[in-house]
Amino acid sequence: MLVAIIAGGVLVSYFWLPFAPDDTSGGRLMPPGGDHLLGTDKLGRDLLTQLLIGGRIALATALGAVAVGGILGVSFGLLAGFATRWLDDAAAVVLDILIAFPTLLLAMLIVAGTGASLGTAILAIGLAMAAIVARLTRVLVKQVLGRDYITAARIAGISWPRIVASHVLPNIAPVVLVNLALQAGLAVLAEASLSYLGLGTPPPNASWGRMLYEAQATVLTAPAAALAPGLALVALVIGMNLTADGLRDLADPRRANR
């Protein structure tokens, strides 16, 4: 429900906004009320408008980073799972080195080298996420390949591509999807952190992280400017984590029955 409410607000923002994103006619640091339900920021922009636009960026980052991390991670994990022993060991070492770097630090290095933009932030977070997904996929593929039905399929003359499509991917999909749902929340936090540090989506686009940065100087005189993006960020991340818990229950019949 938390994710659905925020996604619904973001969807509405594509058709209607209370004010233009660059409208500064509302007066600086106005309190909530009247035409400005959440008040205005230090430049006189409507906070609800900025919050809705920031929601677009947060959801776009979550979906984009999960897509990049999922495709690259699952692909690399499948290759590592089918690789020979020494290639598998080399892949495991590479993944361990990448995972040793914190996701935010790795994303900061990539963004700092290529320039700040929403696309760069999504790519950087997705690449950092791909290492985690790849290691999980590699372990799951190894487990599935050791099953008797895989041996039976090979004896029956079924090709490896068909085995991957019919047996491997369907069996690893539930666990991978749960992990990707958890990673989506981390992606939102990472984008907000990058924007707070000035490495995320550049102005004039609003981002919850940059809204927090801009509001920290006036948090005592105009708390709504900091509370609005902060609470929205917390709600979205908690909602994504709870969604991941629900997917985990659906993927595990024993948990669902219990």
Automatic annotation (TrEMBL):
Pfam family name, one: BPD_transp_1
Key word Metal-binding present: no
Residue intervals passing through the bilayer: 57-83, 90-112, 118-137, 172-197, 217-238
Keyword set includes Glycosyltransferase: no
Similarity comment text for this entry: Belongs to the binding-protein-dependent transport system permease family.
Subcellular location: Cell membrane
UniProt keyword annotations, A-Z: Cell membrane, Membrane, Transmembrane, Transmembrane helix, Transport
Gene Ontology, cellular component aspect: plasma membrane
InterPro entries listed in its UniProt record: BP-dependent_transpt_permease (IPR050366), MetI-like (IPR000515), MetI-like_sf (IPR035906)
GO BP: transmembrane transport
Membrane disposition: Multi-pass membrane protein
Domain (ABC transmembrane type-1) ranges: 55-244
SUPFAM superfamilies (UniProt xref): MetI-like (SSF161098)
Name under which the protein is recorded: Peptide ABC transporter permease
